[in-house]
Each structure stands twice: as C-alpha cells, then as structure tokens.
Amino acid sequence: MDPVTLATLGGIAYANHRINAAVIKRFTYSRTAVATGTDNTPDTPEDLQRLLWLASMEPKILAAVRTVHPGAFTSNVYRSDLLNIVLRQHGYATAKHSRHLYGLGLDVAWKGISAGPTLDAGLRAVRDAIAGIGAELRDAIAEHDNPHLHFDFFDPLRLIDKRTRATRWKQKRADKSWHTLNW
Ligand SMILES: [Zn+2]
Fold first, then answer.
1. Would you tell me how many other CB atoms lie within 10 Å of the CB of residue 138?
2. How many C-beta neighbours within 10 Å does residue 148 have?
3. Which domain holds residue 123?
4. Phi then psi for 75, rounded to 5 degrees?
5. How many angstroms does the Cα of residue 104 sit away from the middle of ligand 1?
6. Quick one: which of 128, 129, 149, 131 has its CA closest to 140?
7. Which of 38, 86, 93, 100 has the fewest CB atoms found within 10 Å of its own CB?
8. Cα 106 to ligand 1 centre (Å)
9. CA of 107 to the centre of ligand 1 (A)
10. What distance in angstroms lies between residue 173's CA and the mean position of ligand 1's atoms?
11. DSSP category for residue 153
C-alpha cells in the first residue's frame, strides 16, 4: 500500500476512534455513577459493540421520536452491572436484566416532559415511526416516575436473542403450516 493511502486510512481510523470515544463517553454518562464514583465502563466487549451499533441508529431513533415530541434527546443509555445495583440502592426501580445492561436500552426525554396521558398518547405513533428505521424494536415503554420513554432493541449480535421479530414471525408461519398439515 502506498504511503498516501496508508496515511489516509490511518487518519480515518484515528477520526473514527475519536468519534467512538465521544459516543461511549456520552452513552455511559450517569449522574448517579458520577456522584457515587461508580464505574460505568462497559462490562464486556459485546456491550461496547452494541453501544456503537446503537450510536449508529441513534439519529434515526431520535428523528422518529421527534416526529411526535420535537426536541427529544437521549437521556440515558448504558448501565454496568455495578451501576444497576447502585441505582437500586438509590431507590430506582431498575430491572435485574434490563437491556440497558447490554447496551441495548435507550431512554429519551425532552424539555418540559411530564408524566401523564401525553406520555402514553404519543407512544403508539413513536413506535410506528421507529418500526421503519431498520433497528428491531423489542419494547417501547412510557415511564411515569422520572418521566421518559424507554426503548429497547433486539440484539444485532444475536447473542441475547437467537431470534428476532422477523424470524419469530417466520417460525410462527412455519408452525402454522405444520398444524394445517396435521390438523
Ligand atoms: Zn430505560
């Protein structure tokens, strides 16, 4: 490879590294982690990979949410196993196997967000908007205490989820035809 190409590739790799580092810093930020000195660096290389995948989807996710809630932004993303325990000690009702622990959960909020009917009302429209972006949405929840919208996704690495929504549907159809054959 000629030196110019090599230098260009080196420059691109360095730029990507800088961008990734900034994303991970933002996605692992937690007020409680900072306040308590809790380590919130990704627990596994897979968590890190999923966070980078999520970062690649984030602009589309936010654009989808903003069709209903203008000004929506990402509020929280990653939680290390340790931070999940610390959050529970601080009174947050965190799920033991939350997708945030795997780098597959993303919370969204906006200025002036409040608990109540508007939070639920927009959820269906947001869900529909996200359906078209190419990330497989697993769940969308309106959280009323500490108001935000929670989204989580099927694992693009196929480690947590062996099957996705699409393959489940295929399986369902296969099951159905099997039943038809056998009455
Ligand atoms: Zn969440």
1. 17
2. 22
3. 3-182
4. -100, -45
5. 9
6. 149
7. 93
8. 6
9. 5
10. 32
11. E
Distance of CA 138 to the CA centre of its chain: 10
**Domain count within the chain:** 1
Residues in the chain: 183
Q: To 10 degrees, the CA torsion angle through 89, 26, 17, 154?
A: 70
HSE-CB at 100 with a 13 A cutoff on CA atoms is: 27
Alpha-carbon span 66 to 122, nearest angstrom: 11
Q: Give 93's contacts (C-beta < 8 A, 6+ positions apart).
A: 145
- The predicted model scores a pTM of 0.83
For residue 148, the CA-to-ligand 1 centroid distance in Å is 8
Strand order through the sheet with 73-76: 73-76, 105-109, 148-153, 137-143
Rounded distance from Cα 54 to ligand 1 centre (Å): 14
Report the separation in Å between the CA atom of 172 and the middle of ligand 1, taken as the mean of its atom positions: 29
pLDDT in tens, 98-149: 999 999 999 999 999 999 898 998 899 999 999 889 889 999 999 998 899 9
